[in-house]
Amino acid sequence: MNPSLKIFWQKCVDFVCSRQFLFVLIGIGLLLRLKYYSENLSLWLDEAALALEILRRSFSEIFFVANYNQYSPTAPVGFLLLEKSVIVFLGSSEWALRLVPLMCSALSVFLFLPLARKYVRAEAVPAALASFALAGPLIYYSAQVKSYSCDVLVAIFVLWGAAHVRDAQLGPRQAIVIGVIAAVVLWFSYSALFVVGGALVVLITFAFIEKRREKGIFLFGVACLAGISFLAGYFNEITQIRANSGLYGMWQKAFLPWSAGPAASVIWLKDATGNIFKDALGQPLAYLAAGLFFVGTATVFARDKEKCFLLVSPAAIVLLAAAAHKYPFFGRFVLFLVPSLALLMAEGIVYVIDKFFKRPAVAILLSAVVFFYPVQNAADVLSRTHAFEEMKPVMRYLKGHYQERDAIFLNNSAQYGYGYYSGRWGLDTKELFVGVIVEPPNPFRSFDPAVRAVYVNYERGALGHLVGWHVGQSANAFSKEEWEKVRDNKRTWLIFSHASAGYRKTVLDYFGREGKKLEEFHAPGASIYLFDMEKS
After folding, report:
1. How does pLDDT run across 442-477, given as a tens digit for each residue?
2. Residue-wise over 87-98: b if at least 16 C-beta within 10 A, else e?
3. Percent above pLDDT 70 for the chain
């Protein structure tokens, strides 16, 4: 490299590593999250279902996991209590419900910089921060009524704290404080177990290896406090969640299929490795990102083994949990690994660039390839609205056209948005006929609108949202009874949301044969139809 080019290249490196540039990256990350939050999209299926659970349960019911509907999604107790507190002070709007995830995501962007400075070289900090700030999945879940942004914040906080504990002297008072903190964070994030557990195993192991026996004993005391907290949470909450067989059915592909043999397990590991970089870090070129991650892991391992193990231990433990079919190794469930992935991938990028220092074109090309899709996604976030399941306009339409004694039927997934927005938009049905039509059998033979045991909203909560439910045979009896009341009703509404095209066609064909379509209204991912079912 000629001297002038070398000087120019060094100036570029200095600029990218400067405090000003790092703050620009933080600002971009915050802007992207605020933009997504500002779109104020309708609550979609999972969000609405969780929102109804928060709305209908008291603080004590949330804390003691009482009155829990096992057919609905849930979240850690600490996260639910934060959401409930926001509702008390700010109401139950989408803005309020999404405020906790937004704040968690914003704090994560701020805290990631000191975390990066603790674990990677100064030259790798900008690449790590850019990967984190621009990661599409993190931006998406920053404006979702879900706990995944809280998972990421807790992971950053624990890893940052572990780096401080590693270098600090530890006495009884400090051990108690750290133990209490470790015990508390486990109630705000299910995945915190893997980060806290991994960090403690690594710190205790290295304390004894390095003959720091007293520190190792104090850290073991911290682990005991964290273990007691985990067991309390396990018996208070996790055992009830495990009763939800539907969730475990959905997660089957996210568990290591060790019983299918070594070949199937190897294929699963290969696919899972690619998917984690694609679905969690937002890198479509997943195997390139994985390669850089492994290079970075080797680099950090050669420089500081303890720091390397602190970063990779959560992934190792969650893989063991997936092998035991206790935790899904998939997309949003492993977002808490993104800080470690971003840090180690950045180390890999810097290592490769250093190897090709005399060929800056290679460094520029690598950076362009790695960050092309994240930058493209950032531009997409800023340039358009991302509506995909808009129940708000559908419910507004229903409110404007509803008449007393109209019948209302929903597909199974639409009931949660209906329950939430019926209160949000003050839909005052004079005599409520609400039934749920589940996915019909395939091939379709006969039409039965009765729900087959999931969840029927029917009872108004304090804020007007429909938050009650019927389960099992009670749900079947309820919906069949309602169907008999309104089978020939002159005005019968059909509402679809989160429904497949085949499902909609099947149900609409039936209602079209049995009655006459009077009105229809469509929004992204949701629609509403009015039929006259009266027999002539």
Report:
1. 544 455 554 444 456 667 888 888 887 776 677 777
2. beeeebebebbb
3. 88
Give the tens place of pLDDT for each residue, 137-161: 999 999 999 999 999 999 999 999 9
Helix (H) or strand (E) holding 252: none
Q: Give the start-to-end residue ranges of the domains of the chain.
A: 3-39+98-242+253-383, 391-532
CA-nearest of 442, 434, 495 to 460 is 434
> E strand or H helix at 279, and its extent?
none
Both ends of the chain: CA-CA distance in Å?
88
Task: For residue 468, give the nearest of 455, 478, 479 by alpha carbon.
Answer: 455
Q: What are the residues whose beta carbons fall under 8 Å from the beta carbon of 175, sequence distance 6 or more?
A: 218, 219, 221, 222
- Phi, psi angles (nearest 5°) of residue 69: -90, 105
Lowest mean pLDDT among 214-218, 460-464, 514-518: 460-464
Find tokens 């890893």 and name the residue. Answer: 159
Instruction: Tokens for 402, please give them.
Output: 């509803």
Q: What is the pLDDT of residues 129-138, one digit of tens each?
A: 999 999 999 9
For residue 443, the model assigns a pLDDT of 44
Locus of tokens 């067989």: 245
Residue with tokens 């969650």: 318
Helix (H) or strand (E) holding 69: none
CA torsion sign for 160, 166, 169, 175 is positive
Confirm if 497 and 394 have CB atoms less than 8 A apart: yes
CATH of 391-532, one of 3.40.50, 3.90.1200, 1.10.10, 2.60.40: 3.40.50
C-alpha count within 13 angstroms, C-beta hemisphere, residue 193 = 21
- Please tell me what DSSP assigns to residue 446: S
- 3-state class (DSSP) for residue 418: helix
Question: What per-residue string of b and e applies to 505-530 under the rule 16 or more CB within 10 Å gives b?
Answer: ebbbebbeeebeeeeebebebbbbbb
DSSP-derived secondary structure letter, 466: B
Taken as a whole, the chain contains a residue count of 536
Q: Which residue has the higher pLDDT, 373 or 506?
A: 373
Q: Does the structure show a pLDDT above 80 at 57? A: yes
Instruction: Return the SS3 of 390.
Output: coil
Mean pLDDT for the chain?
A: 88
